[in-house]
Design goal:
about 290 residues; alpha+beta; Serine Threonine Protein Phosphatase 5, Tetratricopeptide repeat; 2 domains; 7-stranded mixed beta barrel; 10 helices; 8 strands; about 40% helix; elongated; disordered N terminus
Length: about 290
């Protein structure tokens, strides 16, 4: 399929990228260009070759050999922080002793990004597919959370915090990273830090019921029961149906504790209404983990 219609960009051997310890961090696989092919759903529009022709890149099934990418000591891949796809551009290393530079993004797929590597001695190009996780911090977090949600991987709170922190280093207002790091902190009873993160999410979307309820739970964990009840009331004002669908597990237990605490001191009609609506006395619930998203 890649015969006479393929671009002048030729693929090469598999590339091994080694970290500072000398261990193989990941592989890049050679790809071949299929001009004029329509992009499947898993590939973002705009796929092209180095000459700008539309098409898609596919794995080169004929590639067999493997060689090392030798990172440049100054401009190498492991010499910089990589947060998104553009951060890898202008990275330099050697293939078979010949200097190459990552110069362009040719295709972005669901889990793979194809980069153009330029031979700095001849000006010729090669194309390689890389796993997106190393190059795209947001993608790495979302992919992991998706796999956890699909029960394809067990939830690892430490890993979620690590992935979220990587995102927040470059994108401090990323709500996915803020919220999910907060969920892990809430589950480990680090209520102050969780409250700070949930408050940041709510400040960006005042109608985010899930974040509001989690923020209320964190405040309850801090013993700030009146503020916690206000957050529950705020969520209730947005949608009673939404609260019923989102209020469970540790969040429910902490907010129930706060409503009970405040009601014992000031049992006004609004508090009683909240209690009867969301915490009927005959209902027994078992604590479960807070949801990720």
């Amino acid at each position: 399929m890649a015969g006479s219609g393929a671009s002048s960009v030729q693929s090469g051997p598999y590339l091994q990228f080694r970290n500072e310890a000398g261990d193989v961090a990941f592989l890049a696989h050679p790809v071949t260009f299929l001009p004029g092919m329509s992009a499947p759903h898993a590939i973002q529009p705009g796929s092209r070759d180095a000459l700008g022709r539309a098409g898609i890149w596919a794995n080169d099934m004929n590639a067999r050999s493997t060689t090392d990418w030798v990172d440049d000591e100054i401009a190498g891949l492991f010499c910089r922080k990589i947060y998104d796809l553009a951060d890898a551009l202008r990275v330099v290393g050697r293939i078979h002793g010949v200097p190459h530079r990552i110069d362009d993004v040719l295709q972005v797929g669901k889990n793979v990004v194809v980069y153009q590597l330029t031979n700095l001695s001849t000006g010729a190009s090669v194309a390689y597919g890389f796993g997106r996780e190393f190059f795209d911090a947001r993608h790495a977090l979302i992919k992991y959370l998706t796999r956890v949600g699909e029960q394809k991987q067990p939830m690892d709170g430490d890993l979620i915090i690590k992935l979220a922190d990587r995102v927040l280093e470059a994108f401090p207002n990323d709500v996915t990273a803020l919220f999910n790091k907060g969920v892990v902190l809430l589950a480990t009873k680090k209520f102050l830090e969780a409250h700070q993160l949930f408050s940041s999410v709510v400040s960006r979307d005042a109608n985010d019921q899930l974040a509001i309820l989690h923020n209320g739970a964190a405040l309850g964990g801090l013993g700030q029961h009146e503020q916690a009840v206000r957050e529950l009331g705020r969520a209730d004002a947005l949608s009673e149906k939404g609260v019923h669908s989102l209020l469970f597990g540790a969040v429910r237990d902490l907010l129930r504790m706060s409503v009970n605490n405040v009601m014992s001191k000031n049992g006004d009609s609004q508090l009683i209404a909240l209690w009867l609506k969301y915490f009927p006395p005959e209902e027994q619930t078992e604590p479960v983990e807070s949801p990720l998203r």
